[in-house]
Amino acid sequence: MKLGALTRGLPLVAVAAASLLASATASAVPLNPGIQLGAMSCPSAGNCVAVGDYGNGVGQGEGLLLEQHRGHWEPGIQAPLPTNAGPDPLNQANNTGLSDVSCVSAGNCTAVGVYTDATNNDRGLMLSEKGGHWARGVEAHLPGNAYAPTKGKKIQDNLVLLADGCTSAGNCYAVGNYVTAADTIQGLIVTERGGHWQTGVSAPLPAGATVRGQKAVLYAITCLSSGSCTATGSYVDANGDQQVMLLTESGGRWTASTEASLPTTAGANPAATPIAIDCLAAGECTVVGNFQNGNNNSLGLLVSEAGGASATGTQTGLPANAAPPTSYNAQTTILPSVACASAGNCTAVGSYTDTDGNAQALLVDESDGTWATGQQVSLPSNQNHGATEQTAGLDTISCPAAGDCVAGGEYTDTADNDDSLLVTETDGSWAPGVEVRLPSNARGTQYSAVDSISCASVGNCSALGTYSDAYGDTLAYSLQESGGVWGRATELQMPSADRAELQLALSALLTPIGKDASVSAIHKAQSFKQEYVALGPATVSVAWYSSTKSGRSLVASGHVAATSASIGYVTMRLTAAGRKLFATGHTLKLTAVATLKPKHGTALGASKVFTLK
Prior knowledge:
Blueprint: E1 14-15, H1 17-22, E2 36-44, E3 47-55, E4 61-69, E5 72-73, E6 77-78, E7 97-105, E8 108-116, E9 122-130, E10 133-134, E11 138-139, E12 160-168, E13 171-179, E14 185-193, E15 196-197, E16 201-202, E17 217-223, E18 229-236, E19 242-250, E20 253-256, E21 273-281, E22 284-292, E23 298-306, E24 309-310, E25 314-315, E26 334-342, E27 345-353, E28 359-367, E29 370-371, E30 375-376, E31 393-401, E32 404-412, E33 418-426, E34 429-430, E35 434-435, E36 449-457, E37 460-468, E38 474-482, E39 485-486, E40 490-491, H2 499-507, H3 519-525, E41 527-534, E42 538-548, E43 551-562, E44 566-574, H4 576-582, E45 588-598, E46 604-612
């Protein structure tokens, strides 16, 4: 029996461990929280907020909020969702979850994402933190031309809020896309003013954009304390081709620039997709992503905006061992992250395909406005060298100074494990990548990755990632660099279970299962051992009763006091009446009553009728 996710910082609860896996009444209870991290924002050194999603103790998807105060990560909390949230509001299989977070100061943040409501429709989600307190989430109100669900037709997988940015506390923007009544996809902008979210508006499009068949999406946004914001996304032009656009905001008004020009190698339909943006000042931004050439290769895209005018997009120059993009469908380059330390000094990271068909981690540096040819990351010595066996990539980067950056991602080792990867640049020189030292409870067969990095200064960074523990559960870790030295990763604690989770978990104690759960076996042993897991100090009591014409009779009872998180058994000992009843050998219909009394908090109780043969 594995303890797994049930001990990840949750409060006390007792559950029948075997019942969690096999009982029909509790078959949906997972041991694996399946943590996914979305983004991290650090307004000051040692003060960060990260968002994501996870599966709670009863198998329902929930939003995850993680907060770091003065260098210490607090236990995660469950995102407070709108009152119309459904029973499984942020299920990863439904493409829902928290995607981005933006903090203007410690304790003042905004997070965005998508949740499923009680009618099984997807809704935009905005969460606001003020003074360190997260208020209940707010549903995004869509423009008047949005498609409205009717009976039998639902809004699903066609509404997203992908990113948000704030100029000051209570003044933010959330961006994404939505579906109109005319069955087109339009970019979506939702504005927060003075702490109040307004009805969303359709994002303006560049001149010449198609009206029919539009599929506009806003992927990323960055806002400056000066009060201006820039968003980037894709749209369909008059020829039906997917192009890159930049939107700028000033004084609350959004305007669309002309489309960003693509490299001359772009195909007839370039399928241009901007993924990330970083701005140092109004009109001084860098966008990275990918596009397709005429040979159906995905290539890296670098677009620089200077003085408010977009320059021609640049194709990422690849290392000498890259699969040639002149061959058909040979190259896949992806750039998911960019960081700029000063004007004309940026670094983009991602992955590319080498001549053996491996995915290799990629670094692309810009110096004084000129992008250098991308370079392959030198992986740790335990890397897998086999053809088509490497899946290295970088997903995040932070640059506190020009030529001083830290990037993170993953790579494949010789045992085919996916390991967390860190790469550091010092004074313009990139050192070989290093493997992250995972928490002590990490398993041998591993899937881990660095998901987010933020550096307050050179040599002082925070990183978050996910990993597999000894039971195969997907958990989250934090990692701190101080004075240029990285410590060992530390497991992040999960949110406390809510009352509904505790009640359902407690109900697992109500049905005895296993080979010894029979009348004859219990009569022979004069007892029955009911397995439980205690997640903190608590007392658990279980009693079985039989009902007759003369009343209710106690036939077995058990009690255990757990002083800490542990696995054990409640031994159900037969009473005199129970010994007599079980000696008959007949099928018995009994009532189980279980009580959980935590050291702190309100006691919980549950009962159920069950049958033993």
